[in-house]
Design goal:
Layout (H helix, E strand, L loop, with lengths): L2 H18 L8 H20 L16 H5 L2 H4 L3 H9 L6 H11 L5 H7 L4 H18 L15 H16 L10 H16 L4 H15 L24 H16 L5 H13 L10 H14 L3 H15 L1 H9 L10 H13 L3 H12 L5 H16 L1
Length: 384
Amino acid sequence: RDLDLAEEAFAEACARAAAVWPSRPPTDPAAWLYATARRAALDAVRRRGVRQRHAPEPPDLPPSVEEAMTSDEALIPDERLRLIFVCCHPVVPVEARAPLTLRLVCGLSVREIARAFLVAEPAMFQRLTRAKRRIAQSGEPFEIPGPEAWGERVSAVLSTLEVAYGKAHEDAAGAGAHASFAREMLDLTAVLVALLPDEPEGLAFASLVRYAEARRPARLDETGAMVPLSEQDPDLWRRPLIAEAERLLRRAADLGRPGPRQLHAAIHAVWCGRKCLAEPPRWGAVLALYDALLVWRDDAVVRLNRAVALAEVAGPQAALAQVEGLEPAGLTGFAPFHAVRADLLARLGRTGEAHAAYDCALALDPGPAERMWLERQRTSLATD
């Protein structure tokens, strides 16, 4: 239950791998890392004086047929998903379950997690520290849960997957450290849906991922710059993924238990209903769904996205008033906030303020495709 020790031991194993593997690559890298990290952890424990002696563990007996059928691998067949369920343990405070899992399993930095939850980095660091201390003091076994315990963890599991996927999706070029999450999430959500076929929010999140990944081929232009959703060519979207997303969302709706992820997926469904570039976006429907989503999830990011639709329905002045009211909510470190604000200011002819807002977005180190698009938008202000 000492998560700091586990992280230190794994880091030490990676450092040793970097030194040894170029000349002597192991046959089984995962086993090598595990064995090396375990030895590093034991050495650290000895140095701390917690134990004086460690007897070798006897080898495991071959599993029986019954044990194989009820093993952790049989219960949750994906190793990453098993770890996520483990970390979303009820002993961890609710507000720390997803952040802790994102740190330990997904490898997000404290800064990235803080930005995702719109809190200050020191506050997030303290939240994670308290969670680790709570685990160390609890005495609870941190084991892979059986199906009877999945229900109380599924909300935190879905929150973790949402943030992890969001981190990958914000990088249109797929050039960042977490780009692989986008591809992996298709597999993870397929496993999750198989495990929890009657969980509507799980079905809805799986639907959302497929809608979003279906649009990936249209997210970059020929220069490698990001293409905003409203300007993407639907002819480039992957229709089989959209059809799969629609089936999942219908299954969720048929269960009769509405929730925020179903509304979020429905917004994606509206976008993916466009058949060609000439067909205008259905901004009124998007705005209505965001209004409904606010009943379930009234947060700054939802309101920011709603403002984009509001600008198309009620005009940029009405939308800017909404966006300006969000600034105290922690969005100053969120690049899309500055990008939306810059666009609205530009549409109102407030060019100087728009230029400064684009500078704020660029200062937050966006991905290469997003940076190229932001720079292009900022440059266009000087020529308009």
